[in-house]
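Hi V.,

You were right to ask for the full record rather than a summary. Here it is.
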Amino acid sequence: MHDEPTETKRHRGIYLLPNLFTTAALFAGFYAIVAASRGDFDTAAVAIFVAMILDGLDGRVARLTNTQSDFGAQYDSLSDMIAFGLAPALVMYEWSLASLGKLGWTAAFVYAAAAALRLARFNIQVGIVDKRYFIGLPSPSAAAVVAGLVWVGADYDMPGADIVLLAFPLTVLTGLLMVSNIRYKSFKDLDLRGKIPFVAMLIMVLVFVFISIDPPVVLFSIALVYALSGPFMALVSHRRRQRERQLPAPAASTDAANGTPPSEEDRHSSR
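Predicted structure:
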């Protein structure tokens, strides 16, 4: 009798290390919602920024340890939706937009829906678009703008209802930038494992010192500048193309314009 070959069952699993960072980012986003519901807006804003750091680490850890997986990519998107979609929208609503009633939660929903659309579009564009650029404002950067304003207001004891005329358009416009076709620099082409000049290291130290002076204001300012950089560069590029269209075409020689062949003297002089 011949022994029949037995099928070996493969036990599918998930990689632990990168998904730990993703879970931590998800927890930070969820905790931001809980903190905002009890009026602790400083903690809520900080939790969203912590989620940003953890979200930046999970992908890098996965690439460094060669533990990328489809499960990790999908889990990361769901975590981003909570941490950078729902959490900033609800934190902003609890802090400021609630004073506008229906208009306030509508603005918060626009932001949350835009974050979901932004993440869905990003997932289907992986490997298609130029990795040096993001199409639309990235959701972590949008969350930094929204959470940064909340953090600045809470840190300076400004009631959210007093600056709702700033919070409302900021929330809506940030959401619209996420689903726009404006390109943003991704900085993925930076070689972090290569050598850098000593001056660059000194600049990095100064950046950390600058942030430590007033973290809410500095981080909010950095996020806002990055959010505005996309429309600014798009406008500069558009105006450059307009100027190029308006430039006159190179003037052709009179003989060529009239269709007459060059003279014998011209042919000899060109040799």
